[in-house]
């Protein structure tokens, strides 16, 4: 393998300088901030991205709002409060909520919080449409509880109903892995996440990474083909 080919396979997780943050060290040779990987020069790509942040429009509004919240409230606000602050700064009036049925109680609390802060909300449950999993070709043995109707999660319909409702910002509350991807793909409004589902770790998926050196050693075991 050539030296250049080896460099092309390195990315940010391989960097221990992190000079892109404070510029108090040096950029490694493979740094994505200074090294082009495709046909377009990295300087051009940076300027193209910068244009989205400097030209009036939703991208600029969201970037400025996010930066302001980080700078003013760093370590002070919960994520619930950050979402409310973000919504108000981008002028979002109607908040859509794509919720898992397993977190409907949390969603009900969140709805009350939004109302208390002067924000309207509209929520759509993951089981909306009540389609049995077998109707899209899911084998019956893949049902969590077999021998009865078990509705599939329907993130596409969730997104379309929120689009229809004219929401300004959509919030994910515990959608499954993959279902969240489909929801984001089909949502017209920008999307952020309040709760990321992890049934095993109480919706704290980072815990698996924190304990990968002991309790979850299996995460670092290489799979045999």
UniProtKB/TrEMBL annotation:
| Pfam families named among the record's database cross-references | DUF1847 (PF08901)
Highest rank taxon of the organism: Bacteria
Name of this chain's protein: Uncharacterized metal-binding protein
């Amino acid at each position: 393998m050539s030296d250049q080919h080896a460099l092309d396979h390195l990315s940010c997780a391989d960097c221990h300088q992190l000079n892109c943050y404070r510029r108090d060290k040096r950029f490694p040779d493979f740094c994505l901030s200074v090294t082009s990987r495709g046909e377009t020069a990295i300087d051009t790509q940076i300027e193209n991205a910068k244009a989205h942040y400097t030209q009036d429009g939703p991208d600029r509004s969201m970037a400025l709002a996010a930066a302001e919240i980080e700078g003013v409230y760093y370590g002070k606000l919960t994520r619930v409060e950050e979402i409310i602050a973000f919504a108000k700064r981008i002028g979002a009036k109607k908040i859509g909520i794509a919720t898992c049925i397993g977190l409907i109680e949390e969603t009900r609390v969140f709805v009350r919080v939004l109302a208390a802060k002067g924000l309207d909300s509209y929520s759509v449950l993951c089981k909306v449409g009540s389609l049995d999993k077998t109707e899209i070709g899911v084998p019956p043995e893949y049902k969590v509880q077999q021998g009865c109707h078990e509705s599939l999660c329907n993130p596409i319909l969730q997104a379309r109903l929120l689009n229809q409702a004219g929401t300004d910002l959509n919030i994910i509350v515990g959608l499954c892995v993959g279902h969240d991807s489909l929801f984001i793909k089909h949502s017209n409004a920008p999307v952020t996440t309040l709760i990321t589902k992890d049934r095993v770790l109480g919706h704290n998926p980072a815990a698996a990474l924190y304990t990968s050196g002991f309790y979850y050693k299996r995460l670092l075991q290489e799979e045999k083909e």
